Amino acid sequence: xxxxxYKEEICPTIxxxxxxxxxVARNAKPGQFFILRVxxxxxxxxxxIADYEKDEITAIFQTVGLTTYLLSYxxxxxxxxxxxxxxxxxxxxxxxxxxxxxxxxxxxxxPIYPIVREFKKLGNKVITILGARSKNxxxxxxxxxxxxxxxxxxxxxxxxxxxxxxxxxxxxxxDRGEKISQVTAIGPPIMMxxxxxxxxxxxxxxxxxxxxxxxxxxxxxxxxRVEVGNETKLTCQDGPEFDGxxxxxxxxxxxxxxxxxxxxxxxxxxxxxxxxxxxN
Length: 280
Description:
seven-stranded mixed β-sheet; five-stranded antiparallel β-sheet; 17 strands; globular; 9 helices; alpha/beta
């Protein structure tokens, strides 16, 4: 059992939660994740480690399915059944001559935080791009301003800062002649693909973190397989980070659709139950 030590709804449907998990916290590195079960017979879901300190790990999640919905109703002092981690291959952090551009879109903003921090510790010039659909879904802006050399923000609807997408901000950097040694992008798959499409003609190294469907997280089930450079890779073992220019995004999109109907059905059911309870 793992105790919840902090909980906050930082944006509509987006929660920050800390767990007491000493082993995971002491061994975690940027780019890694953990597997969580809310209840003993519940679904196993992967959550990226958004931060780690002392004996606690931080996760940011959005209520998009049954398990995240159930997790959102847990309170500080309560417990989740299982946490397994840290899992996955850590981010490759090193010193570059040029700038490192690190992009987070949606809840993908959270996992880039330790990556930005560690790149900066090595003396890199780090430029961060944060993207959200609207201002009310943007979080941790001040955190990034405290560690990055420059922070650019885009919102799809123009409700805050630059109207547009993260690729628009990245193109501004390219056009101004910024010497970019590496781009790291984490967020919705369509966003990561668009970033890769932009950087490829400029031959800018681009790393993406894939969010394929996952079950055990240790390489035993093969559910998280993806195609990278015409080879089958396991996100949990070989990733989650890969060379974005080699990822078969179309295959990833197809695999991510496998349980959309079931997810939509259960969320509609839960919303109806909540509506009835609120009405009473």
